[in-house]
Amino acid sequence: MLVGYNTNVPYKGTIYHVQTEDNGMKNPLIVTLLYQKGTILASKKVNYGHLTSSPDHKEKIRELMKEQHKNMIKELIAGKHTTVVEAAPAPKSEPRSPEPAEISPEGQNESKSRIAKSLDDILLDYIIKRNE
User: Which of 42, 67, 81, 100 has the fewest CB neighbours in a 10 Å radius?
Assistant: First the structure.
């Protein structure tokens, strides 16, 4: 069983939590859950039984976990899982603007030829690494 990912994602004034876990070799599933205030808004499960006999299965499973975690964050930011939440009446308080995304200073010095990822992928990698 590999250690999972946990990321708090600020989006439209609300904090969402994305959690990705490995259930282990006896139950080869990667499970990703999207929460808001303890309520599960979305879930995704992927079976990786076909990878268990591979000599580098840990690296492959880790990559699957990371991709599934990033995809759930992308779906959240795209608004796929927030329609129910946004439709609820807002509490009577001043509206908050979304927090600006942080950009790693390390990424600013990389040459353009080395950057093969989209800006979304770079930011999601940064968010995941920041929370590890």
Answer: 100
